[in-house]
Amino acid sequence: MVKHDNKIVPRGPIGVFDSGYGGLTILRDLRNVLPGYDYIYLGDNARAPYGTRTFDQVYCFTLEAVNKLQSMGCPLVILACNTASAKALRTIQQNDLPVSEDPSRRVLGVIRPTAEYLGTVSHTGHIGVFATPGTIASGSYDIEIAHQCPSFKTTGHACPTWVPLIESGKADSDEADILVKVEVDSLLKEDPEIDTIILGCTHYPLLYDKIKKVIPEGVTLLSQGAIVAQSLADYLRRHPEMDNRLSNGGTCCFYTTGDAQAFGHLATPFMGHCVEAQQLTI
Ligand code: DGL
How far, in Å, is the centroid of ligand 1 from the Cα of 51? Predict the structure, then answer.
């Protein structure tokens, strides 16, 4: 228990949310950088992919997931999903949290910390972004990168086939090699001066080796996990009032709206330990 705003509130875990498996690529780095905290992972696998859904659908599904994680005791929720960060984060932060039963809870996304990091890596200032159709159409990366580094040129490229491929467990297939090459060629044709490519969808690091194999030497390929984890560590240093509300048991529980066994099967090799997920309705 901890005193907050003159009320005694229980400490709680950090909630990590994604439409499916993608957020595991963020969770893995969060646990490496901040191993002492407790985590609850929630994947909405039953309704993935989000990348081709409307703004309203992504917003409603994300709000349901945030409410669920808060009802499970999370004072802080990370939207480990670019599509949800692009389409739902701002509305949740500005409209929903302030009128909720505990407005001091926080919801953070993954796009801003990624854009903030870019200034330190690109030399040409030409950035490529691979993301879902929803994230690209939202213009969120263009806006955030222009805000952080006004002279940079951002070329976004939607990869609509990649998330369905990963959600169906085919990230290691020959089909994946072909689909990766098509999108890489197309992005680099659009701007051959790109020297930094962001994987702006948390599912895509599951294709990291395949993408790395076909991009030219000298082009930096960035996954978001380590960036987001470092940014959260900084945030908690700057916000001791939130840090004090987080529980420190070093545990991690996994929930999915889809098939729990299938989730555990795919998540276990990726996380490097046995993942036993539980099925959950939100
Ligand atoms: N992993 C998510 C993202 O970062 C969503 C992918 C999807 O459901 O389409 O955008």
Answer: 6
Q: Measured in angstroms, how far is the CA atom of residue 19 from the centroid of ligand 1?
A: 6
Query: Could you read off the pLDDT of 84-116 as tens digits, one per residue?
Result: 999 999 999 999 999 999 999 999 999 999 999
Domain locations in the chain?
2-109+226-279, 112-224
CB of residue 78 inside a 6 A radius of ligand 1: no
pLDDT score at 6: 67
Ligand 1 pocket check for 202: Cβ under 6 Å: yes
Confidence tier at 5 by pLDDT (50, 70, 90):
low
Q: Is 253 a catalytic residue?
A: no
Predicted model pTM: 0.93
- Report the CATH architecture of 112-224: 3-Layer(aba) Sandwich (3.40)
Q: Tell me how far apart the alpha carbons of residues 27 and 154 are, in angstroms, rounded to a whole number.
A: 27
Task: State both tokens at 52.
Answer: 């081709």
Q: Is 256 in the pocket of ligand 1 (CB under 6 A)?
A: no
Tokens standing for 218? 């000298």
Find the helix packing angle between 260-271 and 24-33, rounded to 10°.
Answer: 50
Fold equal for 2-109+226-279 and 112-224: yes
Mean pLDDT, the chain, as a whole number? 95
Report the nearest atom of ligand 1 relative to the CA of 135.
10
- Cα 92 to Cα 69: distance, rounded to the nearest angstrom: 14
- Check whether domain 2-109+226-279 has CATH 3.40.50.1860, yes or no: yes
